[in-house]
Design goal:
Layout (H helix, E strand, L loop, with lengths): L1 E3 L2 E6 L8 E6 L4 E8 L6 E8 L3 E7 L7 E2 L17 E7 L6 E6 L2 E5 L7 E2 L1 H4 L15 E7 L7 E6 L2 E5 L7 E2 L22 E6 L7 E5 L2 E5 L7 E2 L8 E7 L7 E6 L14 E4 L7 E3 L17 E3 L7 E4 L5 E4 L7 E4 L5 E4 L5
């Protein structure tokens, strides 16, 4: 699934993942900042967070791989009547720990939860009412919960991140939330104030279900790892050409292998030396190597956004990323070699892949 600022495209391939067929646009001229391939049921369900200038922010779903779509009978994802706010975009869709649970992260910064597979959504009220919320700021992309990581076995525990507010966690099924930012640097704050309790501009967090206490984080200036589920964070940026970027992806079968896409931290916001490279660590961030063999360009002056890189779950996983120039690249050998799967789409905001 490839979500863009003007609709959604769906690509399919066989297990070799060399040739791809794409259909689209689905939800034409609507912003699709989030999508999800939910494989927990008898058949896969596709979900897309679409923002329509006429209908508002909707979660549409398909049980036939995009042939047909339905949306909630209750209408757009919306705040309760007593909340003076409107959902502008849905930045994240994540499958919950329990069957039928789907979480949606929105702009402005809130999380909504569905217990019926995406038919209806209710506000996580304790997070919205958190005393820190009025002090959260908006990054250049807006204020949004862009990362939602349900614990793989504990349905009472969830980790989320917002730009700009930092990482927050609940261990009581959303009844209370606490910041988890110890060691994360806010490089844009004055010296002596760069390690606040909250207010960091986190770009993306990822973790592996087999080792949920370990998470990896791409910050606005910084790449980090925690081995104690967010109690403390340690820098793993040494060896990268830049500590600025957006996506962070964990290998589906190896919690020590991670991927990121570093960008220049200056105004250009494109890769260092304008070379499109995915960077991989096989030792939890202790060392890094660049991956670019094949079709990745050496003159690449565009960015890859926070949710525009993903891996599938094949035995030898495929890795995919989309860029703001409307192209999507894929690797069927976990980043060793690359080819362009589709070009000339609108601005790519999210990429999701699954083996079905």
């Amino acid at each position: 699934m490839v979500g863009t600022r003007k609709g959604l495209w769906i690509g399919t391939s066989d297990e070799f993942r060399r040739e791809w067929d794409f259909t689209g646009p689905h939800h034409d001229m609507e912003e699709v900042y989030s999508c999800l391939i939910d494989t927990r049921g008898e058949r896969p369900r596709l979900l897309a967070g679409a923002s329509s200038p006429w209908l508002g922010a909707l979660v549409r779903r398909s049980d036939d791989l995009g042939e047909t779509w339905v949306e909630s009978s209750s209408g757009p994802v919306a705040f309760p009547d007593d909340v003076d706010a409107s959902v502008e975009r849905i930045w994240q869709l994540a499958a919950g720990t329990e069957a039928g649970v789907v979480h949606a992260g929105t702009e402005p910064g809130a999380i909504f939860t569905s217990t019926d597979g995406g038919e209806t959504f209710g506000l996580e009220r304790a997070l919205w009412d958190h005393p820190h919320r009025t002090q959260w700021n908006a990054g250049f992309g807006g204020q949004a919960f862009h990362t939602i990581l349900p614990h793989p076995t504990d349905s009472t525990s969830l980790t989320a991140a917002i730009s700009t507010g930092g990482v927050y966690q609940t261990t009581d099924q959303g009844c209370s939330w606490s910041p988890a930012n110890q060691g994360l640097r806010a490089v844009f704050l004055p010296e002596g104030q760069q390690f606040p309790e909250f207010g960091q501009c986190v770009h993306k967090v990822a973790r592996h279900p087999a080792r949920p206490e370990r998470m990896y984080l791409q910050n606005h200036g910084g790449v980090y790892r925690t081995d104690d589920e967010g109690v403390s964070w340690t820098s793993i940026a040494d060896g990268l050409p830049s500590d600025f970027g957006f996506p962070m992806v964990v290998h589906p079968h190896d919690p020590d292998t991670i991927f990121c896409f570093p960008l220049s931290g200056g105004e250009g916001r494109y890769p260092v030396d304008a070379e499109a490279r995915v960077w991989r660590s096989r030792d939890a961030g202790d060392t890094w190597e660049a991956l670019g063999a094949g079709d990745l360009p050496d003159s690449f002056h565009v960015a890859v956004m926070r949710d525009a890189m993903d891996a599938d779950s094949h035995d030898v996983p495929g890795l995919y990323f989309g860029a703001r120039n409307g192209a999507v690249w894929g690797s069927a050998d976990t980043g060793e070699t690359w080819s362009c799967l589709v070009r000339d789409l609108p601005d790519v905001m999210c990429v999701r892949a699954a083996a079905i």
